[in-house]
Design goal:
The chain contains 10 helices and 8 strands. With 296 residues, it is an alpha/beta fold. The chain has a single domain, classed as Rossmann fold (3-Layer(aba) Sandwich). An 8-stranded mixed beta sheet has the order 1-2-4-3-5-6-7-8, with helices on both faces. α1 packs across α10 and α3 crosses α4. The longest helix is centred in the N-terminal third of the chain and has 25 residues.
Length: 296
């Protein structure tokens, strides 16, 4: 994997040098503070955190969590000259809608509604972990609305049955988001499943929505992996944490091997499955660089 390793070095330099410049250049274009809006589609109301101006990026959080997870990365992308929309999942913030009998296609319709209401053209969708499943279904069901998909810290295709330790990881995810457990036990689970050594797992003691988690888990189970895995024909950025236990290094190149040049891979050092709060500057740099190579 020499190509991926060299990309790690290049990315570290890019984050240190390019991102501050991009933020400075985009500061005038970005709106000063995020605003919260409500988009309605029948019996579904989706709260959206919106900021910045420019090409459209929609950001989807991981399972059971809300859009605030992207605060730092969203601000950085807005300052780099992008329009950022962060829809809250049903049941989080002020988003409301049916929570039972769902599939990932229902969540994809929510995202397509947000993109349509914005009327800003096709969007780059950044999906974190479970959010990447929704992003990919959106690209399948609404290809005209999706310019590309950033798959951030997604599990390997073989998860949960395809490699050792998967059951332990699933148990850790459940414990990490259980507010009834002591913080000490939850922190152990957060370090095991989400945060690389030395990174602050305490930032994820808050921000969990158990009802959202349950609905999203069932919706994922109700949808075949084959329905969302390919993301239609959209360009893909597979953004991986180098220490993500859900993506063992043996699976680093699986999207490239399956989809060829449609998939780009960036591995971010000193990051695990949480990724977004662990290395926000590197995440911003990778997304900006990849978007810059896409067709206009």
């Amino acid at each position: 994997m020499p190509a991926v390793s060299s990309r790690n070095v290049a990315l570290s330099r890019l984050a240190a040098v390019v991102v501050p410049g991009l933020m400075a250049l985009g500061a005038i274009a970005a709106k000063a503070e995020p605003v919260r809006e409500i988009f309605v589609d029948g019996d579904v109301r989706i709260e959206v955190i919106a900021e910045g101006s420019g090409p459209l990026i929609v950001m989807l959080p991981s399972r059971g969590r809300g859009a605030e997870d992207f605060d730092e990365v969203a601000a950085g992308l807005a300052k780099a000259g992008f329009r950022i929309l962060r829809p809250q999942p049903r049941g989080a913030g002020r988003s409301r809608g049916p929570m039972t009998g769902l599939s990932l296609h229902d969540f994809a319709r929510d995202i397509a509604t947000v993109i349509r209401h914005e009327d800003g053209g096709a969007a780059i969708i950044v999906g974190h972990a479970f959010g990447s499943w929704v992003a990919r279904v959106t690209a399948v069901d609404y290809p005209q609305a999706v310019r590309g998909v950033v798959i951030a810290a997604a599990a390997a295709k073989a998860y949960p049955a395809g490699f050792a330790g998967a059951k332990e990881l699933s148990d850790a995810v459940r414990k990490a988001g259980d507010p009834a457990l002591p913080d000490s036990e939850r922190l152990k689970s957060l370090h095991l499943a989400f945060f690389a050594p030395g990174n602050d797992a305490g930032v994820w003691l808050q921000g969990w929505y158990p009802e959202v988690d349950a609905a999203e888990f069932k919706a994922g189970r109700a949808t075949q992996q084959s329905e969302w895995w390919p993301a239609g024909t959209a360009p893909l950025l597979d953004l991986q944490g180098a220490l993500d236990p859900f993506k063992p290094r043996a699976f680093t190149n699986e999207l490239r091997e399956e989809f060829g040049e449609r998939a780009s891979i960036v591995v971010i050092p000193n990051a695990s499955h949480a990724l977004i709060p662990e290395q926000p500057a590197a995440v911003i740099a990778a997304i900006v660089a990849w978007i810059g190579k896409l067709p206009h």
